[in-house]
Every structure is written in C-alpha cells, then in structure tokens.
Amino acid sequence: MSLVRDRFRGVAPGDFDNDGDQDVFVQLNIDASMDVLLVNDETEPGVRAFSNVAEFIGLTKKGDRIGGGFFDYDNDGFLDIYIPSAEFNHILYHNTAANNANWIGFRLEGTKSNRDAVGSFVTLYQGDKKQMRYFKAGSDYLRQDNPFVHFGIGFATSIDSVVIRWPLGDKQTLTGLEIKKYHDIKEPEGTAVSRPDGLRRAPELFELAQNYPNPFNPSTTISFSLLRKSRVRLTIHDIAGKEIQTLIDDTAGKGAHTMRWNGCDAAGNPLPAGVYFCRLQSQDGRQVRKMLLVR
C-alpha cells in the first residue's frame, strides 16, 4: 500500500488498541476509497510492522470526508475515530475493543502558561519503556486534537511515573497514579520548591525554557533562569546556524528572566517562516531550543 501526499486530508497518531505503541489513522481525500488505520505491532522479537485493519474493523464509509482523527468521546479509555463529512454530516466510529488492555490519561489545565496547556510534553515511564506525547491544539484539516493526553500500557497493572513539562518549562513529576482513569492535572502556579526548614525559595537551575507560543506569529516569549549573576548571551540563529539577532548580551542576575522576540533580524526586518534556534550561553553552560515561525 502506498499513500500519495496530496490524496489525504488528515494523519492522526494514537494508541487505538492500548498496547503501548502508537497506531496511525489516515483520512484519504478520495471519495471512492476507504480510510486507513495502520496498527503498529511487533511481528517478531525486535521487528515491528504496520497493518491496515480499516476494513476488518468496519471503517468502510466512502464519500466526501474532510479530515478526522482520534477522540475518546465516551471516556472509556479506548480511542474512537471522528470524521467530519459533507455527505454524511458526521461519522463516529466507536471503538468497542475488548482486549482488556490497560491505559491512563490526563486532562491538563494551564495557569501561568495558557489555559489549555498547549505545548506541554508528557512522558510516561513504565519499567524500561518510555512513552512521550506532545499536547497540541490541532494539526490537520478542519480538526482539533483530542483534548486528553492518552497512553495505552498494554497488560501492565501500574506505571512508575509521569513527568509533565509545562509550556513555560516547569517540570512536574507524578507517581502512584491509578490506571484506567483520566487524571485532572493543574499546572503549579508557583516555581518555588520546599526546603527542610519550611521556607521557600526559587529553584536553582540554569535552563532555557521552550518558547511560547510555538509555533508563533508574529512574536514569542523566551524564558530562562540563571544559577547566579553572570554574563549571558541570548541569541537567535537560522537553520544554517547563522546568528541573526541578539536579544541580550549583558550581565543578568540570578533567577528567572523573560525576553520577547518579534520574529525580526538585527536590522528590524521581518524574517520568513521557518525553523529558528534560540541559544542561551553563560558561565554555567549552553542550551538551545528550536522555534517555528509561521507567516
């Protein structure tokens, strides 16, 4: 089976069978063809392959469809498939899998970043396995992404931990979580950490946070923190590594700092859409973040 790029309107990853790996739903832009559901399975030890099971499980609608993706409409932990359709109005394929595979999910609420926590990275640790999800608003034609962060974990009866990296760079580690449940997680409003004496202080770290929003147009916020008062350079580079803008080249104090970049070069000229890099340098190290400017 081959897929031609201009002949589909949506591609959505998701763990349809909750076995712990990502499957792929492809909504074809061809009236006479059925859509595609590629299930990701290990065919033999160390060998993985995708199999199209769309017809086998009943994804047989043809006609005018305009995008689509995974969505757990009944909150049972198994991802369903929703497709807008000019011909059928709406198409909803209910996932009635009875394989007893386990799962866990999260509803994220931002506070100081953004309300929907768009731009968060969620990492699940389970034994020697790690799964990651990037929470975004949408990525395909006429479709918003599933508002939940969902993980299938196969027949495991527990997980070790989940680490959430919120859009402004703060990290939150969760343990002892119940499986087969959606957990409501709210972004911590402060960045303070506890001390043995009961006092509180700002975390001591050298870090360049992911810019927000990302992708962005026309401007974005860049936050960083310093271990100590020091000379610091915060610069913007194009995809070839050429320095095109200097946001700060001066002494800055210990703690958190925020800068704004307007998507222009050093001469004030608007830059074209594309990938750019933000680099933070000080006596404590160097960190780089990738940014996407859209026009």
Notes on the protein architecture:
With 295 residues, this protein is mainly β. It has 3 domains: 10-93; 102-186, Immunoglobulin-like (Sandwich); 207-293, Sandwich (Immunoglobulin-like). It contains 1 helix and 23 strands. The protein has one helix at 54-57, and strands spanning 8-14, 23-28, 36-44, 47-52, 69-71, 80-85, 89-93, 102-109, 121-126, 129-134, 149-154, 161-165, 171-175, 182-186, 193-194, 200-201, 207-208, 220-226, 230-237, 243-252, 255-261, 274-282, 285-293. The protein has a 4-stranded antiparallel β-sheet, with no helix packed on it. It has a 4-stranded antiparallel β-sheet with strand order 10-9-12-13, with no helix packed on it. Strands 20-19-22-23 form a 4-stranded antiparallel β-sheet, with no helix packed on it. A hairpin with a 2-residue loop joins strand 9 and strand 10 (129-134). The longest helix is centred in the first third of the chain and has 4 residues, at 54-57. The radius of gyration is 22 Å and the shape is globular. The model is unreliable at 191-203 (pLDDT under 50).
